[in-house]
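Internal tracking record. Fields below are filled automatically when a chain is submitted to the structure queue. Please do not edit lines marked as system-generated. If the sequence contains nonstandard residues, flag them in the REMARKS field before resubmitting.
Queue: standard
Priority: normal
Entity type: single polypeptide chain
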Amino acid sequence: METLYHQTNKQIQEVQSLMGRLENTDRQSVHLLENELQARIDHIFSHLERLEILASKEPPNRRQNAKLRVDQLKYDVQHLQTALRNFQHRRYSREAQDREREELMSRTFTTNDADTSIPIDETLQLNSNLNNAHRGMDDLLGSGSSILTGLRDQRGTLKGTHKKMLDVANMLGLSNTVMRLIEKRATQDKFIMIGGMLLTCVVMFLVVKYLG
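SYSTEM-GENERATED OUTPUT FOLLOWS
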């Protein structure tokens, strides 16, 4: 398990390094980097599934600590997945705005003998509405990212407290029932974190659907 754990941790660090190159990558190559990052993240998730199985097979006195280490890796890669999706949403919004601007500039105006009619007011209003929707989407993505970061920080605090409780429990020789209650609380905290991420994704989907 130790070998696979360190290998997976190294892969996460490599993905974090590549994520820093996204903003500076040109348009022609950015989707290639996105595909590479997604492939690496998927590979890490497959490693995590294997690590979860190995952690469950650890001796009882080491099992809880092994699960906590795997959970830490899992939260790290989930954070990277969310960051990649946020970047892709922002890129799609920018590209849509560029296309709309090009279509507006290339539109053919209509003329007749009596006067000149430029059907541009409606287009400008539509473009303004779309820009407002895009700005609202960017704000929502930023808020969602902040919420996820806050949840992750809270999970880190709970993880530290949980580990200290386990250490004290081992020192005092608390019963297996108490140990199971502690482990159940850790599982609940994990579900709260995942629920927050899913809720943010649903809100972003609804904004894209109804404002886009």
